[in-house]
Amino acid sequence: RKPVVALVGRPNVGKSTFFNRLVGEPLAIVDDTPGTTRDRLFAQGEWLNTVFDLIDTGGIDPSKTKQGEPLSVGSADFIDQIRTQAQIAIQDADVVLFIVDAMSGVTPADQEVAEILRRNQKVIDGKPYPPVLLVVNKADSDRYRNMVPQFYELGMGDPYPISALHGTGTGDMLDALLAAF
Ligand code: GDP
Ligand code: MG
Q1: Does residue 128 carry a pLDDT above 60?
Q2: Fewer CB within 10 Å: C terminus or N terminus of the chain?
Q3: Would you say 155 is a known binding-site residue?
């Protein structure tokens, strides 16, 4: 079966921009099960003749309550929604792309996402599963590419700088993605 790749990250890091750049038009919005927010965008991606399914879990927007009110970062509801997003990604995905933002640097919400991802990974053959690839988006210029090493502090291994806006850096990142399947 095709590998499944899930995008995870706090709001506004560029998940949707990245998703749309990689796949063109999103194919479908699926599975809005009452009780659990499982709004996800599915599409097919391809790199070097390898086809994979891409999920944007960002339909779960941890920046707003169900009533549409803004949530403060670190509030119980915010963490709860990030947790739901990460759990869905980890249940469904063969690889998780954890997206962060070079322009803002590491934020408490990123630390929260990293923590939740780590806690939800299983261990298979002595390795964390699914693997998480750290993608530093908005690395549009040298000024922001210089910010990239600070993301090592998230403890998610090598950060891959990209610009979803300009389409740069995605080659190396996608090579690493294929290697993780
Ligand atoms: P999401 O909430 O994670 O899905 O983020 P979006 O894809 O909606 O993007 C949030 C904002 O960041 C939008 O204004 C995008 O245009 C902007 N953005 C996304 N990717 C980039 C990038 O690579 N560089 C810059 N400068 N802005 C970006
Ligand atoms: Mg989005």
Answers
A1: yes
A2: N
A3: no
Tell me what the mean pLDDT of segment 122-129 comes to. Answer: 94
Q: How confident is the model at residue 181 (pLDDT cuts 50, 70, 90)?
A: very high
Token readout for 134 is 């750290």
Note the ligand closest to the C-alpha atom of 102: 1
What ipTM was estimated for this complex?
A: 0.99
Residue with tokens 């990460």, as numbered in its chain: 86
Query: Does 139 carry a binding-site annotation?
Result: yes
CATH number, domain of 29, equals: 3.40.50.300
- Whether 12 is in the pocket of ligand 1, judged by its Cβ within 6 Å, is yes
For ligand 1, atom 2, which residue shows the shortest CA distance? Answer: 12
- Closest listed ligand to the CA of 101: 1
Domains identified in the chain, total number: 1
- Among 51-65, 121-135, 143-157, the minimum mean pLDDT is found in 51-65
pLDDT at 101 > cutoff 80: yes
Render the burial of 72-108: b for 16+ CB within 10 Å, e for the rest: ebeeeebbebbbbbbbbbbebbbbbbbbbbbeeebee
- Domain that residue 118 falls in: 4-180
Q: What is the pTM of this model?
A: 0.88
